[in-house]
Amino acid sequence: MTRILSVFNLLKRVGFAVLFSSLGFRTFAQPPVIEWTRSYTTTGMFTARSIYQTSDGEILVSGVISVDSFDPDLFVMRLDSSGDSLSTMLFANPHPGEDGGGFLVPLPDGGFVIAGFGSVGSPPTQAYAARVSNSGQLLWERTIGATNSYEVNSAMLTSSGNILLAGRSGSVPLAIQLGENGDSIWTRTYSTLPQGEFYDVVEINSDQYIFVGEARISGNTQLVIAWTDSLGILTTSLDFGGEGGEIGNSIASISRDSILVFGQSNSFSESTWDAYCLMITADEDTLCVQTITNDEYLLGQQATTTHDDAFLIASIAELDASWGIEVAKLTPNCSLEWSRVLPMSNEWIPWGAICETPDNTILVAGTNGLNQLIVTSLGQAQPAREATPFIVGTTIDVFPNPFNSSLNIVVDVAYPQSISLSLLDINGRLVRRLSQNSNTAGRKVVQLDTTNLCSGCYFVNVHSHNGALTKKIFCVK
């Protein structure tokens, strides 16, 4: 029996308690160093959606390339281990029109499947998949959706050797399974779910799939998670939503008890998006909820697993009016190990891709917002070091506590750094941004008029790129 639950507020309450208790003085690993960066130019525009390294050391990057801006095609670019270009293959829906997607599925025989969708006029779009051998020969290509509009947002190889596609049919979430020869095994649309679409899928123990995406409920965009059996039959679903919007863009699994849903939320900040992490188990238990912010835009895009049972995440980041890809590593319990931003462009970046290679280096693909694809190789992270002492020597004092109509906040900052001071409610939502200073040290005193605050529990949050401190306070009217 399908259960559709809306439990976001409860999860935020639990999740933020975990987050607040875990942010303290701790040991961080230094981020990995850049080994090389390469750029590749076209007369049109690139969008990077997938990247991985083959067993023989070649690098494959895929996505959409617009040589003719009115007729973009899917592409797969082959690079050697140093990033030098070897060849580029283009894939186009047999019908003329705009193609999208470009998701790579590596196969055990060294070949790959590329999946996406194409605009054909009537119906508007069809799902598309093609298989290529390890020698570069096109083995088959298929289009799905003769009478319906299908768009594909992700693809994966199942334990049985089939290809599973996730996306949407019109405004309804969609899943399609293809056999090794490209023949359709089953197609499912999920009209019992709210209108929306799936963006990613993961398989658990060969008998269960977990899809993530977005649902449109009462005018808001909410994150949706759906569990199905191996035949794509829906068994359970959850939706999560706050006052803003939540989107689940990616899902990655270490085990049945450590599954990361990664995406973006604007329920926690006044006018920006934050990266959003939700840890769940295959049995639908929620372990923690956490947001990652840079005080500007940080859009969580892709999550993947690592050789040491951790998670790599990639986000589109805005910093000081420029754009880049922020790469970070999370432990299985969602604690941050390291992060670094790879600058890309002064223009908006539509997407990015990340993977860990067999030798444990990290590959990142993105664009400069114009006509260049950019690929970066990151070496292994350096040994752990003590974090810059944001917590040690930095204090928050509030009085009176409990308070009624006014509150005094005193922050002593130990050394020059950029900090922000915010007031959050019990659910972790931003109530008021109190101040933001650049490279300041010393004492800061804020007198807060709380006449319009309702009774209840709040948090004063001091945040920097090195960590955060919180103070629990109580308003009594």
Overview of the structural elements:
It is a single chain. The chain is mainly β and 477 residues long. It folds into 2 domains: 4-386, 6 Propeller (Neuraminidase); 395-475, Immunoglobulin-like (Sandwich). 3% of the residues lie in helices and 61% in strands. The protein is built from 1 helix and 36 strands. The chain has one helix at 8-22, and strands spanning 4-6, 27-29, 34-41, 46-53, 59-65, 73-79, 85-91, 99-106, 112-119, 125-132, 138-144, 150-157, 163-169, 172-178, 184-189, 196-204, 208-217, 220-229, 234-240, 246-255, 258-265, 274-280, 286-292, 298-305, 311-319, 322-330, 336-345, 353-356, 362-367, 372-378, 384-386, 395-399, 406-425, 430-449, 456-464, 467-475. Strands 1-19-18-17-16 form a 5-stranded mixed β-sheet, with no helix packed on it. Strands 32, 33, 34, 35 and 36 form a 5-stranded antiparallel β-sheet that branches. A 4-stranded antiparallel β-sheet has the order 3-30-29-28, with no helix packed on it. The chain is globular. The two termini are 45 Å apart. The model is unreliable at 1-28 and 384-392 (pLDDT under 50).
